[in-house]
Amino acid sequence: MKQLKIALVAHDRRKVDMVEWAVHNADFLAHQHLVCTGTTGGMVYDAFQEKGINIEMTRMHSGPLGGDAEIAAMVVRKEIDLAIFLIDDLNPQPHEADIQMLLRQCRVHNVPIACNRYSADLMITSSLWDDENYIPMEPKYIHFQR
Question: What are φ and ψ of residue 75, in 5° steps?
């Protein structure tokens, strides 16, 4: 399997969920390159170290300090293959604009993004990652006139 660059982002009240998901999927994630926002990355890294699992990881700033924007820029440059973003939908976020920017850039640039554990599990277990004949179709933004 090719090594994927996977972005991991989790809001404060979802960080424990992200760590549990990452540890549950450690066999898969240990073979990938993770790009994380600061605090989330630190927590995932520590959890892997406790289990004796080495991981390749790049940590950005924390989300409120620009980490979401840094990852969005990587999406635009085609440097992210998959994003897992566990969002706290029950509480307002001071950096909502950055959150929406990351979500939008994933949609615009056709980068799969999972916002809950179930969809994240479905995405990482897809056989398409290994299918050499599968080429994701680029989005087409065409104005239709009636």
Answer: -60, -45
